[in-house]
Prior knowledge:
The complex is a heterodimer of chains A (about 325) and B (about 290). By secondary structure, chain A is mainly α. Chain A is built from 14 helices and 2 strands. Chain A has a two-stranded antiparallel sheet. In chain A, helix 2 runs parallel beside helix 7 and helix 4 packs antiparallel against helix 10. Chain A is globular, with a radius of gyration of 22 Å. Chain B is an all-alpha fold and about 290 residues long. Chain B has a domain of about 200 residues. Helices cover about 75% and strands about 5% of the residues of chain B. A two-stranded antiparallel ribbon of chain B has the order 1-2. Chains A and B meet through helix 5, helix 11 and helix 13 of A and helix 3, helix 4, helix 9 and helix 11 of B.
Amino acid sequence: xxxxxxxxxxxxxxxxxxxxxxxxxxxxxxxxxxxxxxxxxxxxxxxxxxxxxxxxxxxxxxxxxxxxxxxxxxxxxxxxxxxxxxxxxxxxxxxxxxxxxxxxxxxxxxxxxxxxxxxxxxxxxxxxxxxxxxxxxxxxxxxxxxxxxxxxxxxxxxxxxxxxxxxxxxxxxxxxxxxxxxxxxxxxxxxxxxxxxxxxxxxxxxxxxxxxxxxxxxxxxxxxxxxxxxxxxxxxxxxxxxxxxxxxxxxxxxxxxxxxxxxxxxxxxxxxxxxxxxxxxxxxxxxxxxxxxxxxxxxxxxxxxxxxxxxxxxxxxxxxxxxxxxxx
Amino acid sequence: xxxxxxxxxxxxxxxxxxxxxxxxxxxxxxxxxxxxxxxxxxxxxxxxxxxxxxxxxxxxxxxxxxxxxxxxxxxxxxxxxxxxxxxxxxxxxxxxxxxxxxxxxxxxxxxxxxxxxxxxxxxxxxxxxxxxxxxxxxxxxxxxxxxxxxxxxxxxxxxxxxxxxxxxxxxxxxxxxxxxxxxxxxxxxxxxxxxxxxxxxxxxxxxxxxxxxxxxxxxxxxxxxxxxxxxxxxxxxxxxxxxxxxxxxxxxxxxxxxxxxxxxxxxxxxxxxxxxxxxxxxxxxxxxx
Lengths: 328, 289
């Protein structure tokens, strides 16, 4: 039973993988390839958010700040210094990781709402600096002419999906490890976790840095796709948008937010003709989920599955107890 | 010296509107333990309601503002019933996120119907300037300061002297105990929302005629108002006023003596430092987060 479920899952993943790999050769329309690529990068960002919010339970309103740091690092290094793309990408990830390490010191003196507002202040700070530090960031005009490192969109498409799967596997592996268990322990009850010997501050800092690095990667990949970096792209609005996608998908499930990134990105593309409508829908979805479906779509699905299982188990239990009383 | 005093005066007038917004956040927070991020949209709606009553119906500014206060307050009470009360069953973060949903919804519904064209409310005092010694302050900025002062005093009177105000303070101190004492906490919640949204509407009307009325006008003041309440301590009225004024003055000082870019950086850095030294804010007590 278990093995069959596993095989089915593996099969599904392989089919999905094959589909994604061959798709660009059949798709004539560059628009859709671009859309898929953007969605994959957004999925990376959303997973970065999920590591921190979904597993450790700390909600950051400033994660787009790390995307901005990654984005500007790649943009400045490739266009102004002429560093090759892989090195620039590595530098972007490392720098955003380093910045999140630095920020984690003040940030984790806070918790709850205060943590959210403190990180929001950080996000705004990155925006204000990017807006005003014209020598490096170009200010309002941003940095233009970032070359696509793969020449074409198709190459970038493969790169984005490869990265997405790599991040997915990496984070999944981490979540199943003792470190991931420490994360969940902190989310469920931080004081209890601490008193049972979890090094909470270390674990939180690790999650924050990991999240920051993933966000930086996503930001860096986004600007290479767009070929420009502008201070208006990485504001609190983006932080909130990433957060919203994660919540609609269901935080703490990793796959849910990633799928939500694709679905919402596609749905929104058709509604993009009326920009206000996109955020209206986000708003309504968000409120409905908070009111009626806590845990998002994936969380609700898991709950339903659990409930079904529990009911089946209960049914078995009752029949067993009937048997035993009957034989006595 | 004159420049310095002038800067402080300007800071106080901007800070007054932050204080009004911050007070609105505080009033809801103290009764509901909810940081209402959608507060910005009540501010925006207050601006629009005043604009429509003043420009289309030709009512005087003060009457338009009062109508805006009542309309926005009633909308607040309705949303409390339909939306916020549902949020209360969820954990702290979920509530916060729910209010972000409401923020998106309200701002973009406004964007859809009112479009992004900026509108301006004609100030009741026009372009007059008032001279105090060597200082000059525009009549409208003075109006903002005076109105804020009156509202703060009224709110203080309401909290300290009226029975409802005392009940609200009791709810703020301990919700369950207040309920056991026979205080109708549902009604207190409604009153808190009415007061909070009405305060936001006044701020929207005043700032809307100082600057412009647009659907997106609420977001930046919201960020500052959040800094204000965190700085002053969540749930403390006095903290919101002190926080609002000090942020207004700091910004104004930074603009006058250094650059406008620094003013924002300074505000956020200050917030970070305060949170590090005293995570509950200057006048905040217990952390309820």
